[in-house]
Design brief:
There is one protein chain. With about 80 residues, the protein is an all-alpha fold. The protein is globular. About 65% of the residues lie in helices and about 0% in strands. The protein has 3 helices and no strands.
């Protein structure tokens, strides 16, 4: 069973998820959690056809995920 699309979607959820969770306009309590989740999922779905999966060894998947989280955090704090 090929899990490449699942891994790709999971990695695509990390970066916009961090931005939506922590950006000043989106991260507060005034926006419901379901809206934040929906925005994150819709962003990941929209990006899926355009973003290639990075070449990763089995042990390097955690490092790629950590990189995506860090980039998302940096983008969120830049707002």
């Amino acid at each position: 069973m090929d899990l490449t699309p699942v891994v790709r979607f999971a990695l695509l959820l990390l970066r916009p998820g961090m931005v939506v969770m922590l950006a000043p306009g989106l991260g507060g309590r005034q926006i419901p959690a379901m809206v934040k989740v929906g925005l994150t999922v819709m962003t990941a779905i929209a990006l899926m056809p355009t973003v290639p999966l990075p070449a990763v060894a089995d042990s390097g998947l955690a490092l790629v995920a950590l990189r995506e989280v860090m980039v998302g955090l940096a983008l969120a704090f830049a707002f």
